[in-house]
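Handout, section B. The chain below has 240 residues.
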Amino acid sequence: MFPLIRYKILDTYEELGRTGAKIIAAQIAEKPNAVLGLATGSSPVSIYQSLIADYRAGKLDFSKITSVNLDEYVGLGGDHPQSYRYFMQKNLFDHVNIDPAKTFVPNGLAADMTAECAAYDERIVKLGGIDLQLLGIGLDGHIGFNEPADSFTEETHVVSLHPSTVEANARFFESADQVPRSAITLGIGSIMRARKILLIANGPAKKEILEKAISGPITPRLPASILRLHPDVTVLYTEE
């Protein structure tokens, strides 16, 4: 029997943000020095906005928190407006009291990507693992940048982005031609070793792939389906 996934359908994107933020806030309250696995993209923005509001209201303290981000585009430095380091600074890190030295994002400009991947996994091990991993889901079922494939890749690795992923991310660039074609991403094994997982999705386009992930066959052709084997997963969805 597979573990039960907690699946909540919410009315609005704002409610998704508040609910997701409450789950992360509960993790911080339980363990003030928690390791949070963080994600980028449009879906988590409302969560980060709610976390910032709670911090400003004196309800949250990020001073002992460590963050580990899922992925980064290969070829983009942290000062590039479309890099995921830049995204995290703009949408969360610059607005709370997290220690910049404890915020980790893969280096998209690393001279040796193989060494960067190995070092990233080693860092997570040294941190004691991820306590709560925040995930979005792609239109093709990818989590992080783990694209549909013939097998699951366990460790952090460099992946060529599927055309549908490039197309989906083109809205953040001036044109699709500017979207990087590869990224460094946390592997499925690293994601699955997180103690808790929070998967979020919004918009009607995500409904079908999300339902397939949580109720269909477990297959590397739909990477998010592997989450059904994790013992502690919460899924939040809104059509808005």
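Note. The chain is about 30% helix and 20% strand. Compare this with the example in section A.
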